[in-house]
Amino acid sequence: MEIVRFNKVIFEKNKLIIHDDITIDEWKELGRGLKQIEGSVQFWIGDWARFGEKRGFTGKYTDPKVYDELEEITGLDRRTIQNYKSIADKTSSRRREDLGFTHHVEVASLPPEKQEQFLQLASEKKLSTRELREEIRKDGIKESHPDLPNGKFRVIYADPPWKYSNSMPEYFSEQANHYQLMSVDEIAAMDIKSLVEDNAVLFLWVTSPILRESFKVIDAWGFEYKSSFVWDKIKHNMGHYNSVRHEFLLICTRGSCTPDNIKLFDSVQSIERTEHSEKPEFFREIIDTLYTHGRKIELFARKKVEGWEAFGNES
Question: Within this chain, do residues 97 and 157 fall inside the same structural domain, yes or no?
Fold first, then answer.
């Protein structure tokens, strides 16, 4: 669809010059065209870069020197050009005229059929970019978390993919590499009550920023907070208020479920975090030592472990 073609308008870099003899209908049409331009320039630059590669006007984009030339031509930094070209590549056959560039950014990483699904949804329901992102996130949660298993469990071990309300510091993001992040309400809404015996124990990983909100999950899952372990990671990470080096493993019970083994472990365990910040297996060993019988399940598991059933992507 052609957006703007006017003989009575001159487009300059920082100025729009409109001839005095423009009619009111032409002026209105110009306004509608300018609105379309707002969400089109990024596509144009992306398609321009794609065309240059196709026609051999540039080298292959795997050559960093190519972007040096494009930066000089456009005045844009290479990351911006790379982004525009990537989005233009990935959505070339599925673009919708009634949706802006940012809508297409949201779907670009999805498989083609999912792109089509969500672009159509955004078009039909007139979703904003933020609303579209939320729909994609919900769909990702639904697909990444299979149905809960059957049967009852005595021991629950959970490391939820907490979604933080503020900008999430890097050191809180390890579960985001394995699961779609979930809000506290979404985690609380999981039907964990149907999984647990009348007398059961929950070991729940939380970080300081989510500590207060995590009790909503504990209550919703039918447990009562009793105590905690602290994982001292030894290595520091920068937080908003202090240099953070710990996480909490909350101990919560349902009914009567004190440990089978009287052994008392130190509540603070100093274990240097690994590169991928996986929870130390020593905490599972503590659980196995304290609770010697009954079915055990790990929620949001990253791997299968002998003696434990797993729920999540890795199960």
Answer: no
